[in-house]
Design a protein that fits this description.
Distance between the termini: 74 Å
Helix content: 55-70%
Structural class: alpha+beta
Radius of gyration: 36 Å
Shape: globular
Oligomer: single chain
Strand content: 5-15%
Protein name: Armadillo repeat-containing protein 4
Organism: Magallana gigas (Pacific oyster)
Largest sheet: 5 strands, antiparallel
InterPro entries: ARM-like, ARM-type_fold, Armadillo, GSKIP_dom_sf
Number of strands: 12
Pfam families: Arm (PF00514)
């Protein structure tokens, strides 16, 4: 949430990034922040016009910040140029000008002491207003204090500064009035009072802005997920099960709710007066390693309070930060709790297998879970031997009972629990596992798996490949075995020599990699990382970096706790060590568990810290080393960023501005991991917003012209993901990004680059302004040429781009002339769901032109579209139905064509039972076109289209309303359908459609009501529903169709009323 730089209210909700250990934090990139920053930009941009006197009010202290505006960009009367700097002639005092903008190396520093100059700087910043206002607010955490003085600084508690200031002004005015009465005029005092009045007015203006920001924040905050009494009870109950007297087995000594135990009907335990503040309950926790903790469970989260006072009354005052989960708070306050959670050394509970357990398993959602059969805590060798001896005795008992972790333990999220079926059990029996590979990483409740949708899971089940006999092992295997012995038993010198000798082997060869693992070399290499000898650490990391490219080695390193040690090394002052550790983490963090381990042990913050290196043009050994450290950090973050939770952790750690800074580097080796990380993170809206507002689009476009195919591919992929927003699409065009994207279509051999480039063109083509430029670049002809002999990931984007470009009528002809219609129709026979959605849209757009429709009809394209209505994917169904609409409109003898599809009309009517709104809207649109033919209308009426359409009339979706009303209007033209619609209760809900803000809904609804009003009973129903007044307004519409339908409906109602009157008097 954006900090309330203008007042008290929002400051309590401020969230700043923790870059640099919390100092110099940056405002987070969130949608709410963007809205609030835009509000402040609008406020500053028009300030001088609204408040001419206040804009010239001189601040008590200047607002100073690093600006993106060049001194040359500022030109205003009263400014003089001093050696390239711009400084105002007017001054607040002898040494302080009202405005200055000075060059400071590669940056510019701005200092302003009036709102007038602030407004000028903002206007000069052009499209970087967001960056400018963000930099100003981050550098001046309480600008009101700078502007109006410390008396108006933001304070905790009640702020009476305005009232005191008003009293002060009132007293001075009274004193001045007395002096005038005594003929003792005081001009200076009069001017001082006028200035204070101006300050007061300024404060009230800022207060009004603060209220506006507060209202915006509250609207967003109320949408956030909140704690509930059920959630609180669940967490406390779980932890109670894990608490007890034994420090070696239990996480806490005691945990319970504080108070008299009374539970209100809403589930809260807090007293009613505190429930108004969002309090749910109060929890008292006694950890083994500290004093009693008193915790408030509030709807906004868990936080510490000051506990009961001497009289036993709770002191509700908040202490410290709020946490989303109780476990997270306790981990932060108790080292013992954290240690026990990390070790997971809890006694197991024997539980009967019952229906409740089975039900829990069925309901478990496995979308974001690791594909393991379940966690098994570590056991000592002695325990394993005892289990082996007792195996025969316990065999019968195991048939009835199963040794399992406690249900509460599972609910806490400490294990990924699922009941393996017989096939999975058989696989587990066949799989060989190394007894030394036991995980050290806990599965925390807050850290359940959540990975990117693009992530490949090919490594989730690594296959063990061991030679069954020693006969085929190469000589390197035995040589490495000897070296490992030296590593284990040698002194420091022997260890270093052994490490150097080991590096002489071809470590890229799988035999050598697995040889190191099989003879216990991995354990030794990882143990060397805990030594104090830098050379040993470097030698070990160089070997680990090479062999960790192997899937099995990665998992072994993670199992042996190597990642935790490498994360610690990231804090080492030796830059070579940090580089090697980060690069090894980049190799290991290719699978879910490893990425989670890095996050849980603070690796994300440390890796983000590595990115903070200066970008300098001149090269030096020190600068090169710093750049290499940053590159290594970016590589590791690239691997880690495949996890959604890691992306969030990176954002909170302040990675975005650092990545933006590195993006300006001229070093290609630096740019590839930086852009790779950005394109991976661009799947999140907060990152897309940041990429746009931090000016990164310009750098991405510039790097599209790089000589490196890999860099071009990542830049195009980032634009592909970011171009979901119109602002980004406009920036790509403004910075000249469309031309290089089209030129990349020539590189047909590189399929990954081609997929990224075509994806970016697809998304950019959503904006009509970009379509014009694509026409000039002859992009359509090139895209059509890619419709053959390309992989599906390229075809999806190519067809998507053609579909967007074909929305412009001239482009439909270009698609036909380029020979694009036949390959598009051929793609309708595919099975890829995303491709089918895009190709149906493209065919539908092309069918808007009659000449194209002739070709589509000859190729049997309409029949193929109709067959896609049977597809199980609702997106494909909807897209096919939308495509059918222009086909029916533009086909010759469309009625006969539709009837020729056996079972086609019955199929499309049956889709009205769908739960998918887009499917319903598209099918209604298709039915409206089908019903133009009287014979087809008769057939769909027999299939029960009237009651099905009537059941949909209570919808509130305007898109569905529009096409539903159109379908009803068309269907009224057969038999007794008008009467049937009235009998099915479709008339009164249609009247509510007239309250919609969409004029298209009004038009189709008026047509439907006009048709229905031809039945007297329907006239009575719609008159009772209040149809006349809104229709009277629509008679005056600029839309002639709406006018005519509204007037016709009113005319029918009036004729019925006149007929009734005539019958009564005759």
């Amino acid at each position: 949430v954006y900090t309330s730089v203008m007042g008290q209210a929002l400051q309590r909700a401020a969230q700043w990034t923790s870059a640099k250990g919390g100092s110099g934090g940056k405002l987070e990139f969130t949608k709410l922040n963007e809205e609030l920053l835009n509000s402040i930009i609008q406020y500053v941009d028009g300030f001088g016009a609204k408040y001419a006197d206040e804009s010239k009010l001189v601040f008590k202290k200047p607002l100073t910040w690093q600006t993106t505006v060049s001194p040359d960009a500022i030109s205003a009367p009263g400014l003089e140029d001093r050696g390239g700097d711009k400084i105002s002639e007017a001054k607040a005092d002898k040494d302080q000008p009202l405005f200055s903008i000075k060059r400071d190396g590669s940056d510019n520093e701005c200092s302003a002491m009036t709102m007038e100059y602030c407004e000028q700087v903002l206007r000069a910043s052009g499209d970087k207003k967001m960056i400018e206002i963000r930099a100003c607010l981050e550098a001046n955490r309480d600008p009101v204090a700078n502007m109006l003085g410390e008396r108006f600084a933001t304070v905790e508690g009640d702020d009476n500064s305005i009232f005191r200031f008003i009293e002060e002004i009132t007293k001075e005015i009274e004193q001045l009035a007395k002096q005038h009465a005594e003929n003792e005029g005081n001009t200076e005092k009069q001017e001082e009072i006028e200035e204070k009045k101006l300050v007061l007015k300024m404060r009230l203006i800022l207060l009004r802005l603060d209220q506006q920001l507060l209202n915006q924040s509250i609207a967003q905050i109320t949408k956030d997920v909140r704690l509930t009494p059920i959630m609180v009870d669940g967490e406390v109950t779980i932890l109670q099960e894990l608490s007890g007297d034994d420090e070696r087995k239990h996480v806490l000594e005691t945990i319970d709710f504080w108070g008299d135990g009374y539970i209100f009907k809403n589930g809260c335990r807090a007293p009613p007066q505190r429930q108004l503040h969002g309090d749910i309950a109060y929890i008292e926790v006694r950890p083994f390693d500290g004093n009693m903790l008193y915790i408030t469970a509030n709807t906004s989260g868990y936080y510490l309070n000051k506990g009961p006072d001497n009289r036993g009354d709770m002191n509700y005052e908040k202490e410290g930060d709020a946490y989303r989960e109780l476990v997270t708070l306790l981990k932060d306050k108790s080292a013992h709790f954290t240690e026990m959670i990390d070790k997971q050394e809890f006694h197991l509970k024997v539980q009967e297998k019952d229906d409740y357990m089975d039900a829990r398993r069925v309901e478990e959602d496995d979308d974001d879970r690791e594909s393991t059969a379940g966690y098994r805590p570590d056991r000592s060798k002695q325990k394993a031997e005892e289990d082996s001896k007792d195996k025969g005795q316990k065999q019968k008992a195991q048939k009835k009972k199963k040794l399992e972790p406690s249900l509460k333990w599972k609910a806490l999220g400490m294990e990924e629990y699922q009941e393996p079926d017989k096939r999975e059990t058989q696989k587990l029996k066949k799989k060989k596992t190394s007894p030394r590979m036991k995980t050290k990483t806990p599965v925390d409740a807050e850290d359940s798996f959540s990975e990117s949708s693009t992530e490949s899971e090919e490594e989730e089940e690594a296959v063990e490949r061991r030679s069954e006999t020693n006969a085929d092992l190469p000589s390197e295997y035995w040589q490495i075995q000897k070296l490992v012995k030296y590593l284990k038993g040698g002194n420091q010198t022997a260890t270093i020599i052994a490490l150097c000798s080991m590096r002489d082997f071809n470590l890229a060869q799988e035999t050598c990699q697995l040889a190191i693992r099989d003879v216990g070399g991995l354990e030794v290499l990882i143990n060397l990382l805990d030594t104090e000898e830098v050379k040993c650490k470097i030698g070990s990391l160089k070997i680990l970096k090479e062999i960790s490219r192997n899937t099995q080695i990665r998992r072994a390193i993670a199992d042996l706790g190597g990642l935790q040690t490498m994360v610690k090394i990231l804090r080492d002052p030796d830059k070579d060590l940090k580089c090697l550790a980060a690069e090894t983490i980049a190799n290991v963090a290719k699978f879910r568990r490893a990425r989670r381990t890095v996050r849980q042990h603070g690796g994300i913050k440390k890796l983000v810290g590595l990115l903070d290196c200066p970008i300098v043009s001149a090269t030096s050994p020190e600068a090169d080393k710093d750049a290499e450290v940053a590159r290594s950090g970016a590589l590791a973050l690239w691997s880690c960023s495949k996890s959604k939770k890691n992306k969030e952790a990176m954002r909170k750690a302040g990675a975005i501005p650092l990545l933006a800074k590195l993006l300006k580097s001229p070093n290609e080796n630096m740019l590839i991991p930086v852009v790779g990380t950005l394109q991976e993170c661009a799947s999140e809206p907060s990152y897309r917003l940041a990429i746009r507002t931090e000016g990164m689009i310009e750098d991405l476009v510039k790097n599209l012209k790089s000589q490196s195919d890999e860099l071009q591919m990542h830049c195009a992929s980032a634009i592909f993901k970011c171009a979901e927003e119109k602002e980004t699409r406009d920036l790509v065009r403004q910075y000249g990004g469309l031309d290089p994207l089209v030129s990349l279509l020539q590189k047909t051999e590189n399929k990954e680059l081609l997929a990224a480039a075509t994806g970016a063109i697809w998304k950019c083509a959503i904006s009509p302004e970009n379509v014009t430029r694509f026409q000039e670049l002859r992009a359509i002809e090139q895209l059509v040429g890619l419709l053959n002999d390309q992989p599906e990931e390229v075809l999806v984007n190519v067809v998507g781009g053609l579909g967007e470009l074909a929305k412009d009528p001239p482009n439909r002809m270009l698609v036909r002339k380029a020979g694009g219609i036949p390959p598009l129709v051929n793609l309708l026979t595919g099975t890829n769901q995303a491709l089918l959605v895009n190709v149906t849209r493209a065919v539908g757009q092309c069918a808007e032109e009659q000449d194209n429709m002739v070709i589509i009809d000859k190729l049997d394209g309409v029949r193929l579209l109709w067959s896609l209505l049977k597809n199980q994917n609702p997106d494909v169904q909807a897209s096919a139905a939308w495509a059918i609409c222009p086909c029916i409109e533009n086909a010759k003898d469309a009625g006969e064509m539709v009837r020729s599809f056996v079972g086609g009309l019955e199929l499309i009517v049956s889709l009205l039972k769908s739960d998918h709104r887009e499917v319903l809207a598209s099918v209604c649109a298709a039915i409206a076109n089908i019903a133009k033919d009287e014979e087809n209308l008769a057939v769909i009426t027999d299939h029960g289209v009237v009651p099905m359409l009537a059941r949909l009339t209570n919808t509130v979706d305007d898109k569905l309303r529009r096409h539903l009303a159109e379908a009803i209007a068309r269907c009224c033209n057969w038999g007794n359908n008008r009467t049937a619609f009235g009998r099915e209760g479709a008339v009164a809900p249609l009247v509510k459609y007239l309250k919609s803000q969409d004029e298209n809904v009004h038009r189709s609804t008026a047509r439907a009501l006009y048709q229905l009003s031809k039945n007297p009973e329907n006239c009575i129903t719609m008159h009772e529903a209040g149809v006349v007044q809104p229709l009277m307004k629509m008679v005056g519409s600029q839309d002639e169709d709406l006018q005519e339908a509204s007037a016709g409906c009113i005319g029918n109602i009036r004729r019925l009323a006149l007929a009734n009157e005539k019958a009564r008097y005759s």
